[in-house]
Write a structure and sequence with these properties.
Blueprint lengths: L3 E10 L2 E11 L4 E5 L6 H9 L6 E6 L2 E2 L10 E4 L11 H11 L4 H15 L14 H13 L5 E5 L7 H18 L2 E6 L2 H7 L2 E6 L2 E6 L1 H6 L4 H6 L6 E8 L4 E4 L4 E3 L8 E6 L4 E17 L3 E7 L5 E7 L34 E5 L7 E4 L2 E2 L4 E2 L12 E2 L15
Parallel strand pairs: 3-8, 3-9, 6-7, 7-8
Antiparallel strand pairs: 1-2, 1-4, 4-5, 9-10, 11-12, 11-14, 12-13, 14-19, 15-16, 15-18, 16-17, 19-20, 21-22
Length: about 400
Amino acid sequence: MATLTIDGLRKSFGATEVLRRIDLSLADGEMLVIVGASGCGKSTLLRLVAGLETPSEGRVRIGERDVTTLDPSDRDIAMVFQNYALYPHMSVFDNMAYGLRIRGLSRQEIARRVEEAAAMLGLQALLARKPRQLSGGQRQRVAMGRAIVREPKLFLFDEPLSNLDAKLRVQMRAEIRRLQRRLGVTSLYVTHDQVEAMTLGDRLLILHEGRAAQLATPMEVFEQPADTYVASFVGSPTMNLLRGRLVQDGIAVALDAGPVIALAGRYPGDRVTLGIRPEHLTLGPGELSFAVDLIEPLGSETLVHGRLVGDETVVVKAPGAVGAADDGNDPDRPRAYFRRHDRPAHRANRARHGTIAVTGGPDSGRGTVGNKVDSRADCRGDVAAGQRRNTLRSQNHPDVLDTCCPRR
């Protein structure tokens, strides 16, 4: 096993800079997931580590050895691709054994390694089959087995689950994580799927336009995003980002949508952005009204999409099913429930109005000045009529506004 160190890695194709000085270090046995939107440079970074591309600047070290200028065959790595890359005319056994034969291993050693890998992956009964006789999940396991038998120092995964259906992706995610922990091989995993990133990685590297936007554990990225890009990229649905301005000499925020939220301290600046996760919003009596555009019932939860004053969009993740509409005849029924039209449940359901009360546990929202989300704030609270007092804790950071989540 080995560590991986990347120092000042840059890559340009002509005048286009694809990667902008990437620095990172992986511990022995660690799994780092690289995630980002299409075109952010994540596959290019993987190819640079593999030796399939030459860096414009920087160094790559596996263990104590500088491999920057070495061929892929000399780096002692194994790669699992999105398209499986299996030889169609070879059996499962031969596909897994081919690389070992090229390296000149004995028949006994090849058979031992292939049989051990097949036992790990549940492929013992499939060793004589050709790839065309396998399902997508079985083909991906064969591709993983071919990587395992090499006993490499580093595993590289390039979106290996993208071609699988949703059920198989869940199954293969669990298998990949279980195998990586069992083998203890340092691994780089590239994906655009947030669920894969959150569940597989010991740490996440969020790439944005070729730069490292944040490197942290999955929960740190989710709860303490480094900037508004990370805040809006990680999480499903993504974080609500509400515009506002500092008022009362910097001790409160007036949202463009209406409510004024008091702050625990005084902050410099003018325009700010308040970030709140959809699951930290509840439907009910409150001060922040919105027009409902769409209700998506998902069984255990319901997503309510709407528009605030000024056409800002907001999403609320409510547990269970959303209640029936207020018909105006019951004075005790909250006015925040939605009027339901006589149409199928999967179609858009429009409401006369809705109101939001902000509630939640620790880190139920994030506040920013300019384009940075405060990663040091901790708060609990709700926003409702007459309840705008808030208390929060933050490490000293004078140019960043803390989370604007009041508490009772």
